[in-house]
Each structure stands twice: as structure tokens, then as C-alpha cells.
Amino acid sequence: xxxxxxxxxxxxxxxxxxxxxxxxxxxxxxxxxxxxxxxxxxxxxxxxxxxxxxxxxxxxxxxxxxxxxxxxxxxxxxxxxxxxxxxxxxxxxxxxxxxxxxxxxxxxxxxxxxxxxxxxxxxxxxxxxxxxxxxxxxxxxxxxxxxxxxxxxxxxxxxxxxxxxxxxxxxxxxxxxxxxxxxxxxxxxxxxxxxxxxxxxxxxxxxxxxxxxxxxx
Length: 217
Known about the structure:
By secondary structure, this protein is mostly beta strands. The protein has strands spanning 17-19, 22-26, 31-35, 41-46, 66-68, 71-83, 89-96, 103-107, 110-114, 120-121, 128-130, 142-144, 147-153, 163-172, 178-187, 198-200, 203-207, 213-216.
């Protein structure tokens, strides 16, 4: 029986992801499941106890699973790579206390996972390929090709800090690692944002807690 200790966040906040006709869902009790398109369960695994406190709040999980290079990336307590067919854990990364979901960027045809903590991870084996992106609280980064947008609250402990918007271009270095080049930085609203920004064409839509929306080029 599930104990009710997740408060306002609940147990089903992470958004399921779909790949090759199957549904992958992660829940606040640490259960990760694969379902067929008809809703039949294929497998379930338990990823262990949650890690607390989270960045910006005491408890609850909101980060969603995603698929990259035929690996299910599961952000729960740790960042993990999961075998799509069996649910077996392929690799485990560092501790994951973020509410935001990682993003998938593409650099020279290679896909990499960008965490809200600024790490750049290779999905097939969990190797860290670079760093230098800022940590944002509550939301995750957004990637379009080799450009990463980190838009959020950079320090929840400093109440005077604005929500900031930054854009970075990822570049493959000669040693195989991923370099980070800042394109621009903007001070945005004094309000926080709890919603991942939406990128549509040449516009970035950012919605803040009190309902204000800003649109960036």
C-alpha cells in the first residue's frame, strides 16, 4: 500500500514516454513500468527508495523518463539507463535530486542527455561527456539540435534572483568530449517558473507562476 507522503506533488506527476509503440511510466514510489499500446504490462522494476530532500522542496518526484539511443533514461534518485526490452539496469549515474526532466541534444549526430544540473551524459553507457551548463531548479533544460536552453530559477535560496534564460551551443571537441559555448543570457521575470519552456520555431514561450508569459527570440 502506498503511503501518502508526497503531498501536493503526488505519485503520478512524471509524464510517461512512448517509443516504438510501447509506453514507459515512472511513479513516485519508484516503480518503472513498460506497457503495450493496449495497456498490457510488459515488465516492472523498482528503482528503490526516493532521495530527499529535493532541490527546492522537501519531497516528491516530477522528472519524466525518456528514450535515447534505445536506452530508457530514468531520473529517479539516481540517473539510470534501463534496457527497453527487459527493464534491466544498464548503468547508474550520479544522484538525482531534480524535479526537472533531462533533455536530449544532438551533437554531430551523437545524442546526449542534458540534466537540470548541467551534466552532459552519453545515454548508451552513462559516461559524462561534458559539463559547464548551469543548474536550474524546478524545471529541466530544453534542447533543439546542438543548442540547449536553460531557463529557470538558478538559486531558489536567493529570493532576489530572477528567472534567467541562457542559450548554449554544444560542440564536439578534438578529445571527443562536448564543449559548451554560451550564446546569450537574459534576465527574465522575478517570478519562478514551474513549467518547462516551449520552443516553437524561432520563439521560446516561458510561463511563470502567477500567469505571466514572456516570449523570447
